[in-house]
Specification:
Layout (H helix, E strand, L loop, with lengths): L1 H18 L6 H4 L5 H6 L4 H5 L2 H6 L4 E7 L5 H13 L6 E7 L4 H14 L3 E4 L8 H9 L4 E4 L11 E4 L2 H19 L5 E6 L5 H17 L2 E7 L4 H14 L6 E4 L2 H14 L10 E6 L2 H8 L5 E4 L5 H12 L7 E3 L4 E3 L7 E4 L2 E7 L2 H5 L4
Helix pairs in contact: 9-10, 11-12
Bound molecules: beta-D-fucofuranose.
Beta-D-fucofuranose binds next to helix 6 and strand 9.
């Protein structure tokens, strides 16, 4: 019954959001630091469903607080869904979900809220890579194990495990693919524009460093690099200004996630710049969510470097190991694929000595994708 109510609440919320243009706002999903606050703001159905009192009353459920980044991208939606699917009551969990709406101060307070509620475990997807040691010490003092997913925490090791991706390798892979592609096409000069993700996020830092390392190695020109905040609107805004400032000067656009790429494509359409396999500009993205892979298949995006959002099953395994008194691995890397529109840059690329296939996106590949 509770579940039905929260489902109804969720659909009512979705309808009302749809009615005001389909975009979520900070008011509706805002920086609710505790599930109580989240309930009053109707922030998420999970939060509405999972009050601490229920967690205690439900006895043997394991209570997990998840401090999520926000709702900025399709990748993020897939990550949230993965956690909600795995940490369900049916699976023995009581999930307290917090959407920090990309506000790192709110995310720290959300973690503190979880400590106050006495949760059994805390999952953090850190918005930014630094500023964590104090709150992680508070978690340690409270005896609550922390599991970090996706982005890294770079200034503290007071967590049990991290599950995520090697973002620098993603950037390196993007660069090495571009080299092979440009060679195959006889393109000798690269003038690139980079639309970065959110400032201070390890995903941004790694992808930027990886691509820059390859650009420096081959003497490419990075004309500009600006944050689009991992959103479609941000990508569009940055690309609109790039189209004005660098008209006729660029032949590569690197978007650090799929949603920014959608925005960049809109901006280039408006500016009359052609891109993709038949265009003047090579456009590349990271994440490889289904809607973006569709664009790769149609030749509108030249390549897409996957970032796998399905960390939750690994986190559950870690929690089960802790419950059994075992010591989980400190770092777990997700498996990811590199996707391309055309079969012309070779069959694979090698990054840090590891060779990985380039997958040409077909309908069959698309159909087999889980997110
Ligand atoms: O690429 C982007 C999201 O942290 C890897 O965050 C994640 C990034 C992902 O908003 O779409």
């Amino acid at each position: 019954m509770k579940k039905l109510f929260s489902l109804l609440l969720a659909s009512a919320l979705a309808l009302s959001l749809g009615a005001c243009g389909g975009s979520t706002t900070s008011e509706s999903t805002g920086s609710a630091a505790t599930s109580e606050a989240a309930t009053s703001e109707a922030a998420t159905s999970e939060a509405a469903e999972s009050t601490p009192a229920e967690g205690e009353a439900s006895g043997d459920l394991i209570t997990v607080g998840f401090a999520q980044v926000g709702h900025e991208s399709d990748w993020r939606t897939a990550s949230t869904k993965s956690a909600q699917d795995i940490f369900s009551e049916a699976n023995g969990y009581n999930l307290l979900f917090n959407d920090a709406d990309n506000d790192s101060a709110a995310q720290l307070e959300a973690v503190r809220g979880f400590i106050q509620q006495g949760v059994d475990y805390i999952i953090i997807d850190p918005i930014v890579a630094t500023g964590w040691d104090t709150v992680l010490t508070e978690c340690e003092d409270a005896g609550i194990p922390v599991i970090v997913i996706d982005r890294t925490i770079d200034d503290s090791d007071k967590y049990v495990s991290w599950v995520g991706s090697n973002f620098k390798d993603e950037g390196l892979a993007c660069g090495e693919w571009l080299k092979a592609y440009a060679d195959a096409k006889g393109i000798t000069e690269i003038n690139a524009l980079v639309i970065e993700g959110s400032t201070g996020a390890s995903a941004t830092i790694g992808r930027t460093e990886g691509f820059k390392e390859v650009a420096d190695k081959y003497g490419w020109n990075i004309l500009d690099s600006q944050s689009g905040d991992f959103t479609e609107a941000g990508g569009q805004e940055v690309m609109e200004s790039f189209c004005q400032s660098y008209a006729g000067q660029f032949n590569v656009v690197i978007c650090q996630n799929d949603n920014e790429a959608f925005g960049a494509m809109t901006a280039m359409d408006t500016a009359g710049v052609t891109y993709g396999v038949d265009g003047d500009v090579i456009i590349v993205s990271f994440d490889a969510n289904k809607p973006a892979l569709q664009e790769v298949m149609e030749g509108n995006l030249n390549a897409n470097f996957e970032c796998n959002p399905m960390a939750a099953p690994f986190v559950e395994e870690i929690i089960q190991q802790l419950e059994a008194g075992e010591t989980p691995e400190k770092e777990i890397y997700m498996e990811e694929s590199w996707f391309v529109a055309e079969d012309i840059a070779g069959e694979s690329i090698t990054v840090n000595g590891v060779e990985q296939p380039l997958v040409v996106v077909t309908q069959e590949v698309l159909d087999a994708r889980p997110y």
